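Each record in this resource describes a single protein on a pair of labelled lines. With that in mind, the following record should read easily:

===
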Amino acid sequence: VAGFGNCYFWSNDPGNLDSLRAMAKKALALRTSWEAARSLANKQQRAKALWPYLWNYNQSCYKQTEAALQELGAIAGDYIAGRLEGMSYRQKDAFLIDFGTYGSLRLHDELVRELKRQQRLWEELLRRRTGLATYDGIDPAGRMHSNPRRTQDSESDQAEDIGGVLYYGFTGLGGFHDRNDLPFIREAALWGVKYRFKQLDDAALEAFAAMPDRANLAVIESIWNEYSTRPFVGNELHHFEIIRTLNAHRFPETIPLMAQFVNSGFMQEMARQFLVEMTGIDLGGDARRWLEWYESHKRELGGRN
């Protein structure tokens, strides 16, 4: 708390200890006030009292406060739900990813509304700026590729903010492990493909791996087709991410999708092992033979046409 544990930097001269003592007193006062907030018997009041310690004091109490709020579970989640709309983008980026740990239905529903709101904000941004079509039209510095001379661009900043919330938010939504969310996640993932929100699609793949479903397969295929044929520079989609996600989908329809990865270097053994376990035969690293086998057996497997 006092100088992030590095107080010795502040004074090398015994004659200048007053400032170090003042810092220590300030840190002790902060600890005392934080512990008073954490010790409140009423859990709703405790959540409210702890909330400012997340963001104030240079976030020196962030981890302790987050842990204390998570101990409160749904009670803290309900309180956070009421704060979500007013949170800054910086706060959302730090906080959304762990929303599932609270187990709050109200927080879940508010998160879904927030994600839909951010999608609408992106589409509004497109209507204002027709030259901005996809998220990877922004370089790492947050400037439009179409106008690299601009050092500041509020629309670029907004696009970066939206991208962060969509990634951390959909990761947080997946953390609820609610299969009822899958239709929304699939729809959003295809929306992400359309606008090349690669991080949103990364979050969708994580959710699909945790909640396998036949309907996920077409979306996984669309994600792979988009980012393998037109890589997202600086955040390329690697085949092992798809293999790992498909490996959770123990359906016959997964076989032709997995077959294309039997010679894909790292994790190709996982792809081959999956196919062996699903079919009971071993056709090695010949993708064509696996596809031919599937075509001749899909009726008996109940696979799609």
Notes: Residues 139-152 have pLDDT under 50 and may be disordered. The two ends are 61 Å apart (CA to CA).
